[in-house]
């Protein structure tokens, strides 16, 4: 992989392993408590500090899939599973495979929605549409654990979901949203900026402990070009990662030496 493309992946956001459990984990050791449904459907990235959440929210402003994915993760981290389902579903409408994956786990475990293995599989099938390995694995595991009645219903339910959430309709929806964002940007026609685009934020009203957030990466050309945007996602997911929202090294803590 070229060094420049590695940089683009960094700009895409933090790559963190998602929660990929589809059902019960391996049998626990004697005396160890079994994992709860919440633990099986929660990702480490659901728990972030307020400061990081604010930076990621700004960074995702022009991408509704990333913004609603961020809100969904925040709600899941707080145990607000009903809100998480709403937000992940909104992100899923913009071809967000990670959000479709999260919905599949929520239906499988009955968190924020009625437990429904058939719908869980239908969402897992959507998440696996691009054949990202970890999502294909989960889909196949779900299929193996369902009975024949649920398998038949999953195939029926899946058709309606694909009509609304599959890439054929969801990617154009994303493209229209990004085009609107580009049209509303100030500066160059490409949405680029020279130098740094800084946002100043105080920490609890303390100017000495304030932060500067460089938002220039959010206007990077590849993020505003849907074909290149999806190409970055494909590379990250094919290598087993997770596209998360948020600049990594652009948050400069002015309080540190």
Give your account of this protein's structure.
The structure is a single chain. With 257 residues, the chain is mainly alpha-helical. It has one domain. The chain has helices at 3-12, 37-41, 50-59, 64-77, 81-92, 97-109, 117-127, 133-145, 148-165, 167-184, 226-238; strands at residues 198-203, 206-214, 251-253. The protein has a three-stranded antiparallel β-sheet, with no helix packed on it. The longest helix is centred in the middle third of the chain and has 18 residues, at 148-165. It starts with a helix and ends with a strand. The model is unreliable at 1-27, 187-215 and 243-257 (pLDDT under 50).
SSE inventory with pairings:
Elements: H1 3-12, H2 37-41, H3 50-59, H4 64-77, H5 81-92, H6 97-109, H7 117-127, H8 133-145, H9 148-165, H10 167-184, E1 198-203, E2 206-214, H11 226-238, E3 251-253
Helix pairs in contact: 1-11, 4-5, 5-6, 6-7, 7-8, 7-9, 9-10
Which terms would index this structure?
53% helix, globular, disordered N terminus, 11 helices, Sel1-like, disordered C terminus, 3 strands, SEL1-like repeat protein, signal, mainly alpha, 257 residues, single chain, three-stranded antiparallel beta sheet, TPR-like_helical_dom_sf
């Amino acid at each position: 992989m070229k060094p420049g493309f590695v940089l683009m992946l960094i700009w895409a956001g933090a790559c963190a392993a998602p929660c990929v459990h589809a059902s019960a984990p391996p049998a626990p050791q004697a005396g160890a408590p079994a994992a709860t449904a919440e633990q099986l459907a929660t990702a480490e990235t659901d728990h972030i500090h307020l400061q990081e959440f604010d930076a990621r929210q700004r960074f995702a402003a022009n991408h509704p899939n990333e913004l609603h994915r961020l809100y969904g993760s925040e709600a899941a981290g707080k145990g607000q599973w009903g809100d998480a389902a709403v937000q992940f579903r909104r992100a899923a409408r913009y071809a967000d495979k990670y959000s479709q994956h999260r919905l599949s786990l929520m239906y499988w475990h009955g968190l924020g929605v009625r437990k429904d293995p058939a719908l869980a599989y239908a969402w897992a099938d959507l998440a696996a549409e691009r054949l990202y390995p970890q999502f294909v694995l989960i889909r196949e595991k779900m299929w193996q654990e369902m009975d024949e009645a649920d398998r038949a219903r999953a195939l029926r339910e899946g058709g309606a979901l694909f009509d609304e959430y599959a890439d054929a309709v969801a990617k154009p929806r994303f493209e229209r949203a990004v085009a609107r964002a580009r049209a509303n940007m100030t500066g160059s026609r490409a949405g680029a900026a020279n130098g740094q685009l800084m946002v100043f934020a105080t920490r609890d009203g303390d100017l000495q402990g304030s932060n500067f957030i460089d938002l220039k990466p959010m206007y990077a050309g590849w993020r505003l070009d849907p074909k290149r945007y999806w190409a970055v996602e494909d590379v990250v997911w094919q290598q087993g990662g997770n596209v998360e929202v948020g600049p990594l090294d652009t948050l400069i803590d002015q309080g540190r030496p």
